[in-house]
Protein backbone atom coordinates (compact mmCIF):
# COMPACT_ATOMS: atom_id res chain seq x y z
CA UNK A 1 0.00 0.00 0.00
CA UNK A 2 1.40 3.37 -0.95
CA UNK A 3 0.51 6.67 0.68
CA UNK A 4 -1.26 9.23 -1.43
CA UNK A 5 0.91 12.31 -1.90
CA UNK A 6 -0.85 15.52 -0.95
CA UNK A 7 0.81 18.92 -1.42
CA UNK A 8 0.95 21.05 1.72
CA UNK A 9 -1.57 23.84 1.38
CA UNK A 10 -4.30 21.70 -0.19
CA UNK A 11 -6.77 19.71 1.89
CA UNK A 12 -4.08 18.86 4.42
CA UNK A 13 -3.45 22.48 5.39
CA UNK A 14 -6.79 23.22 6.96
CA UNK A 15 -7.97 19.72 7.73
CA UNK A 16 -7.12 16.08 7.27
CA UNK A 17 -5.50 15.44 3.88
CA UNK A 18 -7.11 12.97 1.55
CA UNK A 19 -5.58 9.50 1.39
CA UNK A 20 -5.60 6.63 -1.03
CA UNK A 21 -7.02 3.45 0.46
CA UNK A 22 -6.49 1.31 -2.63
CA UNK A 23 -4.19 -1.66 -2.47
CA UNK A 24 -1.89 -1.72 -5.45
CA UNK A 25 0.10 -4.93 -5.41
CA UNK A 26 1.65 -4.24 -8.78
CA UNK A 27 3.24 -1.06 -7.46
CA UNK A 28 5.24 -2.92 -4.83
CA UNK A 29 8.82 -3.97 -5.65
CA UNK A 30 9.05 -7.43 -7.14
CA UNK A 31 10.40 -10.46 -5.37
CA UNK A 32 14.12 -10.93 -6.04
CA UNK A 33 14.70 -12.45 -9.46
CA UNK A 34 15.69 -16.10 -9.23
CA UNK A 35 17.89 -18.11 -11.50
CA UNK A 36 16.10 -20.33 -14.05
CA UNK A 37 16.96 -23.41 -11.99
CA UNK A 38 15.01 -22.29 -8.94
CA UNK A 39 14.17 -25.21 -6.64
CA UNK A 40 10.57 -26.18 -5.91
CA UNK A 41 9.10 -26.40 -2.44
CA UNK A 42 8.04 -29.84 -1.21
CA UNK A 43 4.42 -29.88 -0.07
CA UNK A 44 4.13 -31.30 3.43
CA UNK A 45 1.39 -33.97 3.61
CA UNK A 46 1.03 -34.37 -0.14
CA UNK A 47 -1.06 -32.28 -2.51
CA UNK A 48 -0.05 -30.25 -5.50
CA UNK A 49 3.51 -28.96 -5.63
CA UNK A 50 3.98 -25.29 -4.86
CA UNK A 51 4.98 -22.67 -7.37
CA UNK A 52 8.71 -22.23 -7.98
CA UNK A 53 10.31 -20.89 -4.82
CA UNK A 54 13.43 -21.01 -2.75
CA UNK A 55 13.86 -22.39 0.72
CA UNK A 56 14.91 -19.14 2.38
CA UNK A 57 15.24 -15.42 1.68
CA UNK A 58 19.01 -15.69 1.65
CA UNK A 59 18.90 -18.42 -0.97
CA UNK A 60 17.00 -16.15 -3.35
CA UNK A 61 19.90 -13.77 -3.48
CA UNK A 62 22.67 -16.30 -3.14
CA UNK A 63 21.36 -18.08 -6.22
CA UNK A 64 21.52 -14.82 -8.12
CA UNK A 65 24.96 -13.97 -6.77
CA UNK A 66 23.82 -10.87 -4.90
CA UNK A 67 22.58 -9.67 -1.52
CA UNK A 68 19.35 -7.93 -0.62
CA UNK A 69 21.28 -5.72 1.73
CA UNK A 70 23.86 -4.33 -0.66
CA UNK A 71 21.26 -3.10 -3.13
CA UNK A 72 21.82 0.64 -3.59
CA UNK A 73 19.53 2.18 -6.24
CA UNK A 74 20.54 5.52 -7.71
CA UNK A 75 19.66 8.39 -5.40
CA UNK A 76 16.82 10.63 -6.55
CA UNK A 77 17.34 13.83 -4.56
CA UNK A 78 13.95 15.16 -5.67
CA UNK A 79 12.32 12.45 -3.54
CA UNK A 80 13.18 14.48 -0.45
CA UNK A 81 10.66 17.10 -1.63
CA UNK A 82 7.83 14.63 -2.17
CA UNK A 83 5.13 15.39 0.41
CA UNK A 84 3.92 12.18 2.06
CA UNK A 85 0.58 11.76 3.77
CA UNK A 86 1.44 10.32 7.17
CA UNK A 87 -1.97 10.75 8.77
CA UNK A 88 -3.75 7.56 9.64
CA UNK A 89 -0.48 5.66 10.10
CA UNK A 90 -0.46 5.92 13.92
CA UNK A 91 2.29 8.50 13.53
CA UNK A 92 3.23 10.13 16.83
CA UNK A 93 4.16 13.25 14.90
CA UNK A 94 1.02 13.58 12.77
CA UNK A 95 -1.80 11.62 14.43
CA UNK A 96 -1.66 12.48 18.12
CA UNK A 97 -2.01 16.26 18.37
CA UNK A 98 -5.33 16.19 20.23
CA UNK A 99 -4.17 13.44 22.60
CA UNK A 100 -1.20 15.63 23.50
CA UNK A 101 -3.25 18.77 24.01
CA UNK A 102 -2.48 20.46 20.69
CA UNK A 103 -4.91 21.78 18.07
CA UNK A 104 -5.91 19.20 15.44
CA UNK A 105 -4.79 21.39 12.52
CA UNK A 106 -1.36 22.19 13.93
CA UNK A 107 1.63 21.65 11.61
CA UNK A 108 4.00 19.31 13.49
CA UNK A 109 7.73 19.94 13.25
CA UNK A 110 8.64 18.83 16.75
CA UNK A 111 9.67 15.22 17.35
CA UNK A 112 12.89 14.02 15.75
CA UNK A 113 11.65 11.83 12.95
CA UNK A 114 11.78 12.79 9.29
CA UNK A 115 9.02 13.26 6.75
CA UNK A 116 11.17 11.36 4.27
CA UNK A 117 10.92 7.72 3.24
CA UNK A 118 13.98 5.75 4.27
CA UNK A 119 16.75 4.72 1.88
CA UNK A 120 15.57 2.46 -0.98
CA UNK A 121 18.11 -0.15 0.09
CA UNK A 122 16.36 -0.40 3.45
CA UNK A 123 12.90 -0.68 1.91
CA UNK A 124 14.09 -3.41 -0.46
CA UNK A 125 15.64 -5.41 2.35
CA UNK A 126 12.53 -5.12 4.51
CA UNK A 127 10.31 -6.29 1.65
CA UNK A 128 12.70 -9.17 1.05
CA UNK A 129 12.55 -10.13 4.74
CA UNK A 130 8.78 -9.78 5.16
CA UNK A 131 8.11 -11.98 2.14
CA UNK A 132 9.76 -14.80 4.02
CA UNK A 133 6.85 -14.49 6.44
CA UNK A 134 8.50 -15.95 9.54
CA UNK A 135 9.50 -13.55 12.29
CA UNK A 136 10.91 -15.71 15.03
CA UNK A 137 13.62 -14.81 17.51
CA UNK A 138 16.70 -13.31 15.91
CA UNK A 139 20.22 -12.27 16.84
CA UNK A 140 22.89 -10.15 15.14
CA UNK A 141 24.78 -12.55 12.86
CA UNK A 142 28.17 -12.32 11.18
CA UNK A 143 26.76 -10.33 8.26
CA UNK A 144 25.14 -7.83 10.63
CA UNK A 145 28.37 -7.49 12.58
CA UNK A 146 30.36 -6.94 9.39
CA UNK A 147 27.94 -4.21 8.28
CA UNK A 148 28.19 -2.51 11.67
CA UNK A 149 31.96 -2.57 11.99
CA UNK A 150 32.40 -1.67 8.32
CA UNK A 151 30.20 1.41 8.74
CA UNK A 152 32.27 2.86 11.57
CA UNK A 153 35.50 2.01 9.80
CA UNK A 154 34.48 3.70 6.53
CA UNK A 155 32.60 6.69 7.91
CA UNK A 156 34.70 7.49 10.97
CA UNK A 157 38.02 5.67 10.65
CA UNK A 158 37.14 3.95 13.92
CA UNK A 159 37.89 0.25 14.33
CA UNK A 160 35.23 -1.28 16.54
CA UNK A 161 34.83 -4.93 17.44
CA UNK A 162 31.55 -6.80 17.11
CA UNK A 163 32.06 -8.17 20.62
CA UNK A 164 31.69 -4.65 22.01
CA UNK A 165 28.12 -4.37 20.78
CA UNK A 166 24.93 -4.83 22.75
CA UNK A 167 21.67 -4.27 20.88
CA UNK A 168 18.93 -2.37 22.73
CA UNK A 169 15.53 -1.05 21.59
CA UNK A 170 16.86 2.51 21.49
CA UNK A 171 19.41 5.00 22.73
CA UNK A 172 17.23 6.51 25.48
CA UNK A 173 16.69 3.09 27.12
CA UNK A 174 20.46 2.59 26.88
CA UNK A 175 21.08 5.90 28.68
CA UNK A 176 18.78 4.78 31.49
CA UNK A 177 20.50 1.38 31.66
CA UNK A 178 23.92 3.03 31.90
CA UNK A 179 22.75 5.33 34.69
CA UNK A 180 21.41 2.37 36.67
CA UNK A 181 24.43 0.17 35.96
CA UNK A 182 27.11 2.70 36.89
CA UNK A 183 25.62 4.81 39.68
CA UNK A 184 23.76 4.26 42.93
CA UNK A 185 20.50 5.96 43.95
CA UNK A 186 21.12 9.52 45.05
CA UNK A 187 24.43 9.89 43.21
CA UNK A 188 24.98 12.78 40.81
CA UNK A 189 25.11 12.43 37.03
CA UNK A 190 26.56 15.22 34.88
CA UNK A 191 24.66 16.71 31.95
CA UNK A 192 25.33 19.85 29.90
CA UNK A 193 22.25 22.04 29.43
CA UNK A 194 20.37 22.95 27.36
CA UNK A 195 20.25 19.35 26.18
CA UNK A 196 17.87 16.67 24.90
CA UNK A 197 15.32 16.48 27.69
CA UNK A 198 15.43 12.66 28.28
CA UNK A 199 18.96 13.20 29.65
CA UNK A 200 17.48 14.78 32.75
CA UNK A 201 14.56 12.36 32.81
CA UNK A 202 16.66 9.16 32.81
CA UNK A 203 18.65 10.52 35.74
CA UNK A 204 15.78 11.76 37.89
CA UNK A 205 13.37 8.92 37.04
CA UNK A 206 15.96 6.46 38.32
CA UNK A 207 16.45 8.19 41.65
CA UNK A 208 19.73 9.89 40.81
CA UNK A 209 20.58 13.59 41.03
CA UNK A 210 21.20 15.84 38.05
CA UNK A 211 24.40 17.85 38.15
CA UNK A 212 23.77 20.33 35.33
CA UNK A 213 26.60 22.31 33.77
CA UNK A 214 25.59 25.18 31.47
CA UNK A 215 26.87 25.48 27.94
CA UNK A 216 27.85 29.04 27.07
CA UNK A 217 27.24 31.05 23.90
CA UNK A 218 30.00 33.18 22.46
CA UNK A 219 29.57 36.51 20.71
CA UNK A 220 28.75 34.72 17.44
CA UNK A 221 26.01 32.65 19.05
CA UNK A 222 28.11 29.45 18.98
CA UNK A 223 27.77 27.18 22.01
CA UNK A 224 30.93 26.17 23.85
CA UNK A 225 31.72 23.88 26.76
CA UNK A 226 32.70 25.55 30.04
CA UNK A 227 35.41 23.17 31.23
CA UNK A 228 36.10 25.16 34.39
CA UNK A 229 32.42 24.95 35.38
CA UNK A 230 32.38 21.25 34.52
CA UNK A 231 35.39 20.53 36.69
CA UNK A 232 34.01 22.57 39.56
CA UNK A 233 30.73 20.63 39.37
CA UNK A 234 32.59 17.30 39.39
CA UNK A 235 34.51 18.36 42.48
CA UNK A 236 31.40 19.69 44.23
CA UNK A 237 29.16 16.69 43.53
CA UNK A 238 31.60 13.81 43.29
CA UNK A 239 29.92 12.71 40.08
CA UNK A 240 31.66 9.98 38.13
CA UNK A 241 29.27 9.74 35.17
CA UNK A 242 28.71 12.22 32.33
CA UNK A 243 26.03 12.01 29.64
CA UNK A 244 27.53 13.57 26.50
CA UNK A 245 25.46 14.64 23.49
CA UNK A 246 27.66 14.39 20.38
CA UNK A 247 26.54 15.95 18.02
CA UNK A 248 24.55 18.11 20.35
CA UNK A 249 20.76 18.20 20.39
CA UNK A 250 19.32 20.85 20.33
CA UNK A 251 22.12 23.39 19.78
CA UNK A 252 23.56 21.66 16.71
CA UNK A 253 27.23 21.58 17.65
CA UNK A 254 29.41 18.88 16.15
CA UNK A 255 32.09 18.91 18.79
CA UNK A 256 35.59 19.12 17.29
CA UNK A 257 38.28 16.58 18.08
CA UNK A 258 40.15 19.20 20.13
CA UNK A 259 37.03 20.01 22.15
CA UNK A 260 36.43 16.35 22.86
CA UNK A 261 40.09 15.80 23.78
CA UNK A 262 39.88 18.63 26.29
CA UNK A 263 36.76 17.07 27.79
CA UNK A 264 38.48 13.69 27.88
CA UNK A 265 41.41 15.12 29.82
CA UNK A 266 39.09 16.41 32.56
CA UNK A 267 37.07 13.19 32.63
CA UNK A 268 40.19 11.03 32.86
CA UNK A 269 41.69 13.09 35.64
CA UNK A 270 38.55 12.70 37.75
CA UNK A 271 37.72 9.10 36.83
CA UNK A 272 34.52 10.06 35.05
CA UNK A 273 32.90 7.52 32.71
CA UNK A 274 31.35 9.11 29.62
CA UNK A 275 28.11 7.83 28.10
CA UNK A 276 28.18 9.32 24.60
CA UNK A 277 24.82 9.69 22.84
CA UNK A 278 25.97 9.72 19.21
CA UNK A 279 22.63 8.98 17.58
CA UNK A 280 23.00 12.05 15.32
CA UNK A 281 26.62 11.25 14.37
CA UNK A 282 25.76 10.42 10.74
CA UNK A 283 24.01 13.77 10.33
CA UNK A 284 26.97 16.13 10.53
CA UNK A 285 26.38 18.68 7.79
CA UNK A 286 28.63 18.71 4.71
CA UNK A 287 31.94 20.25 5.70
CA UNK A 288 31.76 18.83 9.24
CA UNK A 289 32.56 15.38 10.60
CA UNK A 290 31.59 13.75 13.86
CA UNK A 291 34.42 12.39 15.99
CA UNK A 292 33.19 9.46 18.08
CA UNK A 293 34.32 10.23 21.62
CA UNK A 294 35.62 6.69 22.18
CA UNK A 295 37.75 6.91 19.03
CA UNK A 296 40.13 9.41 20.67
CA UNK A 297 42.29 6.66 22.17
CA UNK A 298 42.18 3.16 23.64
CA UNK A 299 42.26 4.72 27.09
CA UNK A 300 39.25 6.89 26.24
CA UNK A 301 37.36 3.91 24.83
CA UNK A 302 37.94 2.06 28.10
CA UNK A 303 36.00 4.81 29.92
CA UNK A 304 33.20 5.24 27.37
CA UNK A 305 29.81 3.77 26.54
CA UNK A 306 28.92 4.79 22.98
CA UNK A 307 25.23 4.82 22.07
CA UNK A 308 24.56 4.62 18.33
CA UNK A 309 21.61 3.87 16.08
CA UNK A 310 20.55 4.27 12.45
CA UNK A 311 17.17 5.55 13.66
CA UNK A 312 17.78 9.28 13.07
CA UNK A 313 19.93 9.14 9.95
CA UNK A 314 17.72 6.55 8.20
CA UNK A 315 14.37 7.37 9.84
CA UNK A 316 13.99 3.99 11.52
CA UNK A 317 12.92 4.99 15.04
CA UNK A 318 9.82 2.79 14.95
CA UNK A 319 11.90 -0.33 14.29
CA UNK A 320 13.65 0.08 17.63
CA UNK A 321 17.26 -0.93 17.17
CA UNK A 322 20.34 0.67 18.71
CA UNK A 323 23.94 -0.52 18.90
CA UNK A 324 25.67 0.20 22.20
CA UNK A 325 29.44 -0.09 21.82
CA UNK A 326 31.47 -0.73 24.98
CA UNK A 327 35.14 -1.66 24.65
CA UNK A 328 35.82 -2.25 28.34
CA UNK A 329 34.79 -5.70 29.54
CA UNK A 330 33.89 -4.52 33.04
CA UNK A 331 31.65 -1.71 31.80
CA UNK A 332 30.12 -3.99 29.18
CA UNK A 333 29.34 -6.63 31.78
CA UNK A 334 27.68 -4.11 34.09
CA UNK A 335 25.59 -2.74 31.24
CA UNK A 336 24.53 -6.20 30.04
CA UNK A 337 23.56 -7.31 33.54
CA UNK A 338 21.30 -4.28 33.85
CA UNK A 339 19.77 -5.02 30.44
CA UNK A 340 19.21 -8.67 31.38
CA UNK A 341 17.42 -7.57 34.55
CA UNK A 342 14.75 -5.90 32.41
CA UNK A 343 13.91 -9.22 30.75
CA UNK A 344 14.95 -8.02 27.29
CA UNK A 345 16.85 -10.45 25.08
CA UNK A 346 16.44 -10.90 21.31
CA UNK A 347 16.14 -7.73 19.20
CA UNK A 348 13.47 -6.82 16.66
CA UNK A 349 14.22 -8.88 13.55
CA UNK A 350 13.08 -6.11 11.19
CA UNK A 351 15.21 -3.60 13.07
CA UNK A 352 18.25 -5.79 12.50
CA UNK A 353 17.33 -6.15 8.83
CA UNK A 354 16.94 -2.40 8.38
CA UNK A 355 20.15 -1.53 10.20
CA UNK A 356 22.22 -3.96 8.16
CA UNK A 357 20.69 -2.70 4.90
CA UNK A 358 21.29 0.93 5.84
CA UNK A 359 24.92 0.31 6.66
CA UNK A 360 25.55 -1.81 3.56
CA UNK A 361 23.52 0.02 0.93
CA UNK A 362 22.46 3.41 2.26
CA UNK A 363 25.62 5.48 2.14
CA UNK A 364 24.92 7.47 -1.04
CA UNK A 365 21.34 8.12 0.09
CA UNK A 366 22.58 9.42 3.45
CA UNK A 367 25.01 11.82 1.79
CA UNK A 368 22.20 13.14 -0.43
CA UNK A 369 20.04 13.57 2.68
CA UNK A 370 22.78 15.59 4.39
CA UNK A 371 22.89 17.92 1.38
CA UNK A 372 19.11 18.27 1.54
CA UNK A 373 19.23 19.14 5.24
CA UNK A 374 22.00 21.68 4.66
CA UNK A 375 19.90 23.32 1.95
CA UNK A 376 16.86 23.34 4.24
CA UNK A 377 18.86 25.00 7.00
CA UNK A 378 20.15 27.67 4.60
CA UNK A 379 16.60 28.23 3.36
CA UNK A 380 15.31 28.74 6.90
CA UNK A 381 18.08 31.24 7.63
CA UNK A 382 17.22 33.20 4.49
CA UNK A 383 13.51 33.26 5.36
CA UNK A 384 14.24 34.33 8.93
CA UNK A 385 15.78 37.54 7.61
CA UNK A 386 12.18 38.64 6.97
CA UNK A 387 10.99 37.60 10.45
CA UNK A 388 11.94 40.20 13.01
CA UNK A 389 13.36 38.92 16.27
CA UNK A 390 13.93 35.23 15.40
CA UNK A 391 17.25 33.82 14.29
CA UNK A 392 18.80 30.36 13.94
CA UNK A 393 21.84 29.62 16.04
CA UNK A 394 24.88 28.39 14.08
CA UNK A 395 24.37 24.70 13.29
CA UNK A 396 26.89 22.05 12.27
CA UNK A 397 24.81 18.90 12.47
CA UNK A 398 21.42 17.21 12.99
CA UNK A 399 18.20 18.18 11.21
CA UNK A 400 17.05 20.15 14.25
CA UNK A 401 17.43 23.93 14.30
CA UNK A 402 17.63 25.90 17.54
CA UNK A 403 15.78 29.18 17.07
CA UNK A 404 16.51 32.16 19.30
CA UNK A 405 13.19 33.99 19.73
CA UNK A 406 14.34 36.45 22.41
CA UNK A 407 14.15 39.45 20.09
CA UNK A 408 10.58 38.64 19.15
CA UNK A 409 9.56 38.13 22.78
CA UNK A 410 11.04 41.46 23.74
CA UNK A 411 9.33 43.30 20.88
CA UNK A 412 6.00 41.65 21.69
CA UNK A 413 6.31 42.23 25.43
CA UNK A 414 6.03 38.49 26.12
CA UNK A 415 7.68 36.21 28.67
CA UNK A 416 9.55 33.05 27.59
CA UNK A 417 6.78 30.97 29.17
CA UNK A 418 4.36 32.40 26.60
CA UNK A 419 6.41 31.44 23.53
CA UNK A 420 5.02 27.95 23.04
CA UNK A 421 1.44 29.24 23.28
CA UNK A 422 2.19 31.73 20.50
CA UNK A 423 3.69 28.99 18.34
CA UNK A 424 0.69 26.70 18.86
CA UNK A 425 -2.25 29.10 18.76
CA UNK A 426 -0.98 32.05 16.73
CA UNK A 427 1.32 30.28 14.25
CA UNK A 428 -0.35 26.85 14.25
CA UNK A 429 3.03 25.19 14.72
CA UNK A 430 3.87 22.30 17.00
CA UNK A 431 7.54 22.79 17.90
CA UNK A 432 9.60 21.81 20.95
CA UNK A 433 9.69 24.72 23.39
CA UNK A 434 13.19 25.54 24.58
CA UNK A 435 12.33 25.34 28.27
CA UNK A 436 12.02 21.55 28.17
CA UNK A 437 15.74 21.34 27.33
CA UNK A 438 16.70 22.82 30.69
CA UNK A 439 18.64 25.87 31.78
CA UNK A 440 19.47 28.17 28.88
CA UNK A 441 16.51 27.03 26.82
CA UNK A 442 14.23 29.89 27.78
CA UNK A 443 13.23 32.00 24.79
CA UNK A 444 14.24 29.32 22.28
CA UNK A 445 12.31 26.77 20.25
CA UNK A 446 13.46 23.73 18.27
CA UNK A 447 12.23 23.04 14.75
CA UNK A 448 12.70 19.88 12.67
CA UNK A 449 13.68 20.76 9.08
CA UNK A 450 13.83 17.18 7.76
CA UNK A 451 10.77 17.62 5.62
CA UNK A 452 9.88 18.56 2.03
CA UNK A 453 10.43 22.18 1.04
CA UNK A 454 6.67 22.72 0.66
CA UNK A 455 6.12 21.69 4.27
CA UNK A 456 8.96 23.88 5.47
CA UNK A 457 7.66 26.90 3.55
CA UNK A 458 4.17 26.37 4.93
CA UNK A 459 5.64 26.42 8.44
CA UNK A 460 7.72 29.53 7.76
CA UNK A 461 4.70 31.30 6.25
CA UNK A 462 2.74 30.58 9.41
CA UNK A 463 5.60 31.72 11.60
CA UNK A 464 6.08 34.97 9.69
CA UNK A 465 2.37 35.81 9.78
CA UNK A 466 2.12 35.10 13.50
CA UNK A 467 5.21 37.11 14.46
CA UNK A 468 4.05 40.05 12.33
CA UNK A 469 0.55 39.99 13.85
CA UNK A 470 1.64 39.58 17.47
CA UNK A 471 4.33 42.27 17.19
CA UNK A 472 1.89 44.66 15.51
CA UNK A 473 -0.67 44.13 18.28
CA UNK A 474 1.95 44.84 20.90
CA UNK A 475 3.05 48.02 19.10
CA UNK A 476 -0.54 49.19 18.78
CA UNK A 477 -1.18 48.54 22.48
CA UNK A 478 1.94 50.48 23.39
CA UNK A 479 0.91 53.38 21.12
CA UNK A 480 -2.54 53.53 22.68
CA UNK A 481 -0.98 53.53 26.12
CA UNK A 482 1.21 56.46 25.23
CA UNK A 483 -1.77 58.38 23.80
CA UNK A 484 -3.78 57.74 26.96
CA UNK A 485 -0.95 58.92 29.16
CA UNK A 486 -0.37 62.08 27.13
CA UNK A 487 -4.09 62.91 27.15
Portion in beta strands: 5-15%
Largest sheet: 5 strands, mixed
Average pLDDT figure: 88
Rg, alpha carbons:
25 Å
The span between the termini is 69 Å
User: What structural category arises from helix and sheet content?
Assistant: alpha/beta
The percentage helix is 25-40%
Number of helices: 16
Describe this structure in words.
This protein is of the alpha/beta class and 487 residues long. It contains 16 helices and 15 strands. The protein has helices spanning 11-14, 57-62, 92-95, 120-132, 142-156, 171-182, 198-204, 227-237, 257-270, 298-301, 329-341, 349-361, 363-384, 406-412, 419-426, 453-486, and strands spanning 107-108, 165-168, 188-193, 209-214, 216-217, 223-224, 241-245, 273-277, 304-308, 322-325, 391-392, 400-404, 429-430, 432-433, 444-448. The strands form five sheets. It has a five-stranded mixed β-sheet with strand order 2-10-9-8-7, with helices on one face. It has a four-stranded antiparallel β-sheet with strand order 11-12-15-14, with helices on one face. β8, α10 (298-301) and β9 (304-308) form a beta-alpha-beta unit. The longest helix is centred in the C-terminal third of the chain and has 34 residues, at 453-486. It is globular. The protein starts with 10 loop residues before the first helix and ends with a helix. The relative contact order is 0.13. Residues 1-54 and 60-66 have low confidence and may be disordered.
Topology:
Elements: H1 11-14, H2 57-62, H3 92-95, E1 107-108, H4 120-132, H5 142-156, E2 165-168, H6 171-182, E3 188-193, H7 198-204, E4 209-214, E5 216-217, E6 223-224, H8 227-237, E7 241-245, H9 257-270, E8 273-277, H10 298-301, E9 304-308, E10 322-325, H11 329-341, H12 349-361, H13 363-384, E11 391-392, E12 400-404, H14 406-412, H15 419-426, E13 429-430, E14 432-433, E15 444-448, H16 453-486
Parallel strand pairs: 1-13, 3-4, 7-8, 8-9
Antiparallel strand pairs: 2-10, 5-6, 9-10, 11-12, 12-15, 14-15
